[in-house]
Amino acid sequence: MTSPGPLAEVTRRDVTSGREVSESTHRGSLAVCDADGEVLASLGDPWRSTFVRSCAKPFQATACLELLDLAGSRPAGPEVAVSWASHRGEAAHIEAVRRLLSRSATTAEQLTTPPDRPDIDPGATPAPILHNCSGKHALFALTGSEQACPRDRLLDADGPLQRPVLAVLEEALGPFDAVGVDGCGAPAVAVPLARLAAAYADLAAGDRWRRVREAGLAHPQLVGGTDRLETALLGAGVVAKPGAEGVFAAGWVDERGRARGMAVKAEDGAARASASATVELLEAMGVAPVDLWRPAAPLGGGTPVGRVRAAPAVLALAG
Hints:
Layout: E1 5-13, E2 20-34, E3 39-43, E4 49-51, H1 57-71, H2 77-83, H3 91-102, H4 134-146, H5 162-173, E5 178-181, E6 187-192, H6 193-205, H7 210-218, H8 220-223, H9 229-235, E7 239-243, E8 247-253, E9 259-266, H10 271-284, E10 299-300, E11 303-304, E12 306-310, H11 312-315
Antiparallel strand pairs: 1-2, 1-12, 2-3, 2-9, 4-6, 5-6, 7-8, 8-9, 10-11
């Protein structure tokens, strides 16, 4: 197994010289692939087995939409976008989730997400609809109602809803290394990191994923929210999604019409590491605009005193 490489470093500024001094380094793995799975560039171990977490959502949403097509049910674009979100709990997110819930006559209290507080209001009373995965679970509720799946079995890996959903995930990602339980209670799958990158290359161009892709590109704010990297990248035409524990995936079509995908995993689970590596490599490759997004800077006395930046080894992959 290849050792993890440096993904991102945190600096603190020397007050005398103004020099950025490296304070800590996040290590991990990164893979850039085409849709056929060829590894085009890598750092660390591109075959590291990785729970993809919320990076699975576009494929889970597609599985549900395909089942709903058979039943003659077709959610609107904003509802599709929020169905693969890890949202911040903004008003537009909650409104879109409520509209999706209304299609199955499911109440907000009946959602299968655990009660949670939204990112935008940590002091709010926990509620299922405020969980960042509530859009996905609202789509599960609608699809399950058409599949005659009892509400208490909506999340069962061997239940009538998740069996076909997992089958689509396996078609997109390849054979699973493991199937666990995600934070929201839905099945969570682990695959080699390079397979996630290849799946996102296909997500960027494949016809099967068109409805999910186009919904996210048309409604980027609903997929993430204010100050989120995935929203910024979708606004720039890059299909992108973070997952818990320092996972990030992105897909795009390059200037020669070739589908490409990237997947990043931070060993310490730091979201700022995977996000920094992703956005700065995309910028270096000319895929995303320069200075599109940056993570929160280290603070000193309440003001920024350093940076979180991609490691030089990541930027070197741009060639």
